[in-house]
Amino acid sequence: MQSVPQDCWLDVLLPLSLFALLLQKSSDPFGMVFLIVIWLGLKFFLRTKTSPIYWSLIGVIAISLAMMTHSVTNSSPSDLLLTLLAFTAGAGRSREQWRASFLILAFIGLVALFIFHIDHGRLNGNLEIIPIQALRDFLPDHALRLRKITINRSGYILGIVSILGFGLARHDQIAWRRWLAFGLGLSSYGMAFLTGSRAAAGLPLLVFLIAEIAWRCRARLSRLASPVASLVLIIGLMINLSIYLPSSPFPISNPSDKGRANVAQCFFTQSISSWTTVLTGQGGDSVSSTCKRLTEPNPGKKFGPPHAHNAFLQTLGDYGLPAVLMLVIVIGLSLRNAIQMIAAGEGLQGTIALSASLFIFGSALVESTLLTTSLQQVLSGYLLAVAWPRTAK
To answer: Could you tell me the pTM of the whole model?
Structure first.
């Protein structure tokens, strides 16, 4: 039996960070952030022998700790910082390290069973797509979420964890691990579906289907990685733009989507109001506060959405065009690297890298995925780094 690499055992802290929600009496994220900061610090400490730069990153964590634990704003600079630090912790890891980490992180779906909470204020709209009436009647009418975490962010966490389970079930070489991973992945996806988040219900299946097609067609992808990655980015951004344009017909049929489109249009208008705001943004929450005041609230809500429901627009408003370009470039290169890994025959790591990159990109188009929830930010950065493996010396 192969031994688990040393740094992989640290990943147990990420599922355990969800248990910290059981101890919370308010929305204070200290318990979750405390375990995540320990995870990051130890990850970097183990790498200090290879490069002194990791001592500097440990210092960045220490300096940012106050922002992570005491931030009262909706959007804080620590949000993107935590994602970048998690990406750094994951970049350059070996195939064996990731294989162990995938299985450990898949247990987040098991931990979630203990902290699921019924949100009596929101119905589960995903039940409408189930064709069997008896099954619809059996499942709870109201949406479920992970304690203090919002419905969409709960769906995101569970959706991306389900990808790990399905990827291991498809490509792991050991039978008992495949069945265990499949059970964990199915459990995570089932809970993601019950959150009522449309993205969490559809995206995991869609991206894994695309990854499976890529795997079966891998012989043809060796020279097409860059064009395919660029095409995916262009198509995704164009579809997203068509949703949020003032003349778009898509939001009209759904009042909630119409409210999101109005806020997105406000975010874009405020972000390009001057060259200064285009280049540097307006800081956390400034555009959110302005658009909350200028846009009409969704039906049944006292105020409009406090964020853009779009990670790229949110980043543009808060931190400016350079940060958005960095985000787009990193996602584009991650897609390219993942396709190259699949073309090279890396079944497990390549499939999960492509699925995770597509899931993160697709979710970023319809939700401000890098806000507020520490575990969500860490999973996003850490799993985006799957597409950036250790290079040969």
So the answer is: 0.90
